[in-house]
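ligand=S-adenosylmethionine
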Amino acid sequence: MKGMNSIRTGTALMTMRSLAIDTDEDISSTRPNCRLVSTHSPASIERLQMANNFEHTPVLASEVVDLFADLPVGVLVDATLGGGGHAELLLDAAPESRLIGIDRDVVARHAAGERLARFGERVRIVPGTFGDLVGILERESGFVNGAPIVGILADLGVSSPQLDDAARGFSFRSDAPLDMRMDQTSGMTAAEFLLEVDAQELTRLLREHGEGRFAGAISRSIISSAPRTTSELVAAVERAVPPAARRRGHVATRVFQALRVSVNDEESQLDSMLESAIAHVSAGGVVVVISYHSGEDKVVKKVFATAATGGCTCPSELGCVCGAVPIMRVLKASAVLATSDEIERNPRSRSARLRAAWKLSA
Ligand SMILES: C[S@@+](CC[C@H](N)C(=O)[O-])C[C@H]1O[C@@H](n2cnc3c(N)ncnc32)[C@H](O)[C@@H]1O
């Protein structure tokens, strides 16, 4: 498929204008003097402009840099590259290491390509999903070149520009087509998903995302109205929840979150990424995950705890008699949260929960 080439940032600092882009992804090559291809579609020009305006403040940045300090030289993986904010800090802090950055969103990859261009051959930006971490590492074996994978970061969820770009349909604050795909080149939009899902399944999804006694009524209201825009979805939710019963915050918050998680298959992506990250990080290396809702954080906590005990469930007073072998050491039982200073500077950090674990030697 055209547009599936990975981006390789060149040694020359290229502005987005100097890159040849004629499809979603073809910001090809390290050629320093690429000319602007005249066949830009209006959509690709718009994406480029957005990449230039990509503003996302990395969350828990100094905590992440500290956790990656003292690692051996090797390859770092930023599984959720976004605009490259964390990646830039990590590359500056580890001048001899290289970094693979993964993102499923073309706008993010363009923005990161620009931001990280100064690191030249130390960076490889690849399209794809972090659930396919194993496949990506295999395909990037030339770049890895036998070096250990010493650190893996996943800063989950969506970026500020994804939320702020009304046309992406992630936000209930503005009217837009109900899309919600992080990768707009594949998969079902949220509107299409709502035409496929049945009320029982939708109710289950809403309950999983914290919607309580109105989950059934909301599902039926949504399914009967088949919303095609964010405003139509909000109206369907409002019809199902009496004003007096609405909780703090927007009545549709949980519905939007549940839909986004389903449309982007976020749960199975996370499971698969955690398993692969633990398997592929080298001894002494670190896996750091920042999540933004309690469901995700519970999964990360559980997977790290299982790796730290080797799956042992022997009663603690007896000690382990089952022979389970721990493979990770976790930073601490509770998650690291943003300080009040950071929350004031960057309100998005309010819901961030960071967990980290180091791979033990075999
Ligand atoms: C919170 S932002 C990361 C921001 C980044 N740490 C920074 O400092 O700029 C999350 C990014 O991960 C991407 N993403 C989310 N789920 C993904 C997945 N399963 N595979 C690949 N990218 C994903 C989103 O498209 C988004 O750009």
